[in-house]
Amino acid sequence: MSRLASAFAKPHPALVTFVTAGDGDTAAILDALVAGGADVIELGMPFTDPMADGPAIQAANLRALGAGTTTADIFRIAAGFRARHATPLVLMGYANPMLARGSDWFAQQCAKAGVDGVICVDIPPEEDGDLGPALRARGIALIRLATPTSDAARLPAILEGSSGFLYYVSVAGITGKQQAVQASIEEAVARLKAATALPVAVGFGVRHPEQAAAIARVADGVVVGSALVELVAQHGAEAAGPVRALTAALAQAVHRARAHA
Amino acid sequence: MNAPAAGTNSLRNQPDERGHFGAFGGRYVAETLMPLILELEREYARAKADPAFAAQFDDLLEHYVGRPSPLYFAPRLTGELGGAQVWFKRDELNHTGAHKINNCVGQILLAMRMGKTRIIAETGAGQHGVATATVCARFGLPCVVYMGATDVERQQPNVFRMKLLGAEVVPVTSGAATLKDAMNEALRDWVAHVHDTFYIIGTAAGPHPYPELVRDFQSVIGKEARAQMLARTGRLPDLLVAAIGGGSNAIGLFHPFLDDPVRMLGVEAAGHGLDKQHAASLAGGRPGILHGNKTYLLQDEDGQITEAHSISAGLDYPGIGPEHAWLKEIGRVEYTSATDTEALAAFQLLCRTEGIIPALEPSHAIAAVRRIAPTMGKDQIILANLCGRGDKDIFTVAKALGAEL
Asked: How close, in Å, is residue B186 to chain A by CA atoms?
C-alpha cells in the first residue's frame, strides 16, 4: 500500500496540513507537523503569481522567494523530510514552476525526493497531456481539485486520471478566506463519494479544531493551510512550537471526530 | 466573425477546438473557473453565429466608438524618412482614445447575453480600465477595475476618469503591484464571484476563448484597413507594423492579412535594453504558463515570473498573447523591439512631422518604422497601427525629457 493510501486507511479521518516551502525554517516546521499528528503534508511550491491564493499564502510565497528559495531547495527539503519521516508528502503549486524544466524532469525529481503526490492548481484535465502521465509513470499521485462549480457533467473529467485523494475546495474563492456552510460540505462530499472510490479531503477556509471536527465527521480528510501559514508569518524562525500546538489541537479534533459523533 | 470556411488551408483558422495555437494558448485555470470558461466558449460560438449580435456590435462601433477609423498617409514623416510610404490606421481617434474600446464593446455585449450583472477588469496604464468603465456606464452595469498600486500612483488622470465613469478602482498591493498583479487579483475576484461576474480581459491573452474573441473583436482594425488600403491605392501594403504588449492591437491589424502576401512586424518594448530590464517576452523570454495560457514569458530558470519594464505602462507585461507566440514559431510574423529611448524619439518625431501626439505604445511601432522605412523603396507601403493617442502620456514624456509641467 502506498504511503498516501495508508494515511487514508487509518481508523480515523486524516488531517492534511499545508505550509509553504522556504517560508521560515521549513524542515523544523515539517517536523512539527508530524509531531503534532498530521497524516498528510502538503508542501507549497512558492510562485511569484499565486492567483488562486488569498493574502496569507500570497505573502508566504513572497517571503519564501524573497529568502531565495529555488526549486532545487524545495526538492532538498522534500528529500530531507523523506529521510526522517514516513508521512506522505504532496507538492502543491502552480504549473509554471513545475513545468519549467519539463514534466519528466519534475516527475523524476519528485520520485527521487520521495514525494507521494502533486497538486497543480492551474492544470485542468483538459491540459493534462504531460504532467499527469509523467507522474503516474513514476507511481506519483496526481491529486485533482473538485469545487462547488464541479457539477455532474464536469465531475467525470476531473476524476479521470486523478489518484491519491480528491481535494474538495469547499468554497468558490481563494485560500484562507470565507468558510463554507457545513450543510453544503456534507451534500458535496456525499455527491463526490458516490462518484469515486478515492478518499475525499475538504479544504479552503478551515481554521479551527471545531470546524475541522465537523468536516471530519463526513469527509475522509480535512485540509488546513492558511491558519498554519499565518503562524509562520507571526513567529518566523520560532514557528515550529506554535505550529506543533495548532496541529496537535487539529489532529485531536479530526482524529476523534467520529468517536464523538 | 472573421474565420474563413473550415478546412481551407488558412492561417486564420486558429485556434483549434481546445483553444490551442500550435503549442500555445489553452485553458490553464483553477478548476473552479473551468465550467465558466467552457460556458463562455459555448456562448461565444453562439454569438458568432448570431447576425443580431454582429449587427449590435457593428452599430455600437459606428455610432458610439466612431468607426471606421481613418486610414491616413503621413506625407511629412514619409519625406523625412526618405523611403517607403508610411500610412497609419488611426485607432487613436476612437472614443476613449485607443483601440481598447473595440474589445470592450464586444465583451460587454457577450456579458449581457450571458445574463451577467457585474463586470471586472484589470488595467495597467488605465486605458483598458477606462474603456471598460465606459461601456459599463453605457450599459448601466457595475464595474470594478483592478490596478496595481504602483500604476494607480503613476496614472492618476486615468484613475480619475474611471471614477468619473462610475467604476470602482481597487489598488492592488500584492506582488510588484503592477499589471500582472492586477490580473492575478481580477482572477481572484472572478473565482469568488463565478455566478454573476464577467471578466473583461483587455488583451488577446488569458484562457481560451479570450485570445480568440479579443482578436475577433479587434480584427475590425485590420478588416477596415485592408478595405481602405485597397480602395485608396488599389493594392495591399508591403509591411504592417504594430506595437505589442499583450498584442491585441497587433493581432487585430495582422489577422485579416495573414493569408495575404504582406510582411508583418510586431514591436515589443525593449525598455532600458534587451540586456537590461525590458518587456520583450518573445525576444527575452521562453514558453511557460501564466494567466490561463501557455505563451512566451519573462521568467527565471525556475519558472518564476520576472518583472517587466517599459516606459509605456501599456506594454509593461511579462507575457504576450498566444497567437503571437505561434506566429513567431511558424515564422509568419517577424518580431523586433524598440527601447524607451527610441520610442521617446519616435514620439517626438510624429508630433513634429504630422501634428499627431501618439501614445507611448504605438511610439514603439513608429520607432521600428523609422528604422525600416529608409531601407525600403519609395514605391513600397508601410501600414502602422496608431493604436492610441498620447494625451495620457504627457506627464511621463515630460518627466523623461526633463521638462517641468
From this structure: 9
In a domain, A1, yes or no: no
Cell representation of residue B306: 520576472
Whole-model pTM: value is 0.96
Answer whether residue A5 is part of any domain.
no
Taking the Cβ of residue B175 and every Cβ of chain A, the question of whether any pair is shorter than 8 Å is answered with yes
Q: B17 to chain A nearest CA, in Å?
A: 11
Q: Between residues 9 and 48 of chain A, which touch chain B (CB distance below 8 Å)?
A: 47-48
Chain B contacts of A71, Cβ < 8 Å? 302-303
d(CA A216, CA A257): 6
Whether residue A172 lies within 8 A of chain B, CB to CB, comes out as yes
Buried/exposed A60-95: b ≥16 CB within 10 Å, e otherwise: bbbbbbeeebbbebbbebbebbbeebebbbbbbbbb
Q: Tell me, yes or no, if A42 is annotated catalytic.
A: yes
Task: Choose among B158, B113, B74: nearest CA to B354.
Answer: B74
Give the domain extent around A121: 14-260
> Catalytic site residue A160?
no
Residue A2 lies in a domain: no
- Contacts with B, A 234-253, CB within 8 Å: none
CB-based contact B192 A173, cutoff 8 Å: yes
Q: How do residues B12-64 score in pLDDT, each as one tens digit? A: 999 999 999 999 999 999 999 999 999 999 999 999 999 999 999 999 999 99
Query: pLDDT tens across A141-158, in order?
Result: 999 999 999 999 999 999
* Nearest residue of chain A to residue B30 (CA atoms): A122
Can you tell me the distance from the alpha carbon of B50 to that of B329, in angstroms, rounded to the nearest whole number? 34
> DSSP secondary-structure letter at A253?
H
Q: What are phi and psi of B123, to 5 degrees?
A: -150, 150
Whether A67 maps to a domain, the answer reads: yes
